[in-house]
Amino acid sequence: MSVRRLAAESVQPTTFAFTAESIGWVNEQIAKYPAGRQASAVIPLLWKAQEQNQYWLPKAAIEHVADMLNMPYMRVLEVATFYTMFNLEPVGKYFIQLCGTTPCRLRGAGDIISVCESRIGEQRHVSADGNFSWLEVECLGACCNAPMVQINNDYYEDLTPENFNALLDDLAAGKPVKVGPQNGRNASEPEGDVKTLIDPKLFDGSVIDSWKATFEERKRKADEAKAAAVAAAKAAEDAKASEPAKPAEQAKDAAPARPVPSDGKSGATQDTPAATGTAGQAAANAGQPAPSASKDEAVAPAADPAKEEAAKAEERIIAAKLASLPKTASATEKADAVGSKPAGLAAPRAGKADDLKRIGGIGKVNEGKLNLLGVFHFDQIAGWSLEEIRWVGTYLAFPGRIDREDWVGQAKTLASGSDTAFSKRVDQGSVPSSKA
């Protein structure tokens, strides 16, 4: 890094103060920071001081900024001498910062440097008329328009010795000049005989307005759908609260039990309670395919009446939230409308996933889907909140089933190192759909 020092005393002004026009802007910058943290505004204030002082920063301005921010002079001097965007000595009326890094060099920056040297002189030298000075700097970020320069606050691109000389002539004469490309191209559009179909709107900025309108319309619809879902969910909960309690026997009838073999073990039949009754109806009403049994799915024992009633209540709430979504909504969009996606892992811990099929209700298909969501371990499922249960249940197209089959309770038991009745059967190999 080059040594940066303040300009000679002979060119330093004795005083500096922000103009009435600048002071309002300065106070706005300071007000952005809480009491005691005003020093955070040091860089914008130094920049404004430089801009006000013909694009260079005198000692008096550095000390004035330090006084405004209640900072030691040395602290502000450290900032001013560290950042090369602060000019510590006088520059010309038109201060040329010339990009000398690789893309510009390959495209003719050396010729532009030769023009500066022949017309102005060495770097950091101000021309006799006070109009120009120049400095070679690092990349200015307009590589596709190389070579280019920054003059004061504007970029001038696609330079050649001829158009750069003409530009300097016009600036010296006080004539208006064109900012940006100097070879006639529009912004950064392809140059020359373009062989591909190019939409001019991609380069003139007009397309931004249509994008903005599209985004705003999408957000408006999403906000309306969310509000409608909240209202529908509240209406469903209010309706549930006003319903008379159902006798346990009636609740039991609502969930048909599966046959139990004579050996006392629950059967390995592939029928699942979530595929029938209100769960299937709720899914149909929400535009989802009704949950169905799969040869690939393990089945948990039927839920008890209390859990069945709780699962039905969940189905009503979820169906109400999904009612406002279009039928074309994806599984993720539906899940996002009713809950929160659980955090997933990029890979199983220590490279080994738990056998999620040891949870009643999770077979090879659902295990695969859970793995794709980053769910590999029992303790992940054990920690699901209500919102996360709703998200996963809706994403897998069987709202209410996770509650019925008590995935979370089973997962807590398995995560603790204990077994469930179902996991013991899986370990014994007596659940065909849970075999790897």
List keywords for this structure.
five-stranded mixed beta sheet; mainly alpha; 436 residues; Arc Repressor Mutant, subunit A
Oligomer: single chain
Main sheet: strand order: 2-1-3-4-5
Helix count?
19
- Gyration radius, in Å: 36 Å
Outline the low-pLDDT stretches. Answer: 249-297
Q: H/E series, N to C?
A: HHHHEHHEEEHEHHHHHHHHHHHH
Shape: elongated
Structure commentary:
The protein is mainly α. It folds into 3 domains: 9-82, Arc Repressor Mutant, subunit A; 94-191, 3-Layer(aba) Sandwich (Glutaredoxin), CATH 3.40.30.10; 220-258 and 267-434, no CATH class. It has 19 helices and 5 strands. It has helices at 20-31, 42-52, 59-69, 73-82, 102-106, 109-119, 161-173, 201-204, 207-242, 248-254, 277-285, 305-322, 331-338, 364-372, 378-382, 386-395, 401-405, 407-415, 421-428; strands at residues 94-99, 132-137, 149-151, 154-157, 180-181. It has a 5-stranded mixed β-sheet with strand order 2-1-3-4-5, covered by helices on one side. Strand 3 and strand 4 form a beta hairpin. Helix 3 crosses helix 4. The longest helix has 36 residues, at 207-242. It is elongated. The model is unreliable at 249-297 (pLDDT under 50).
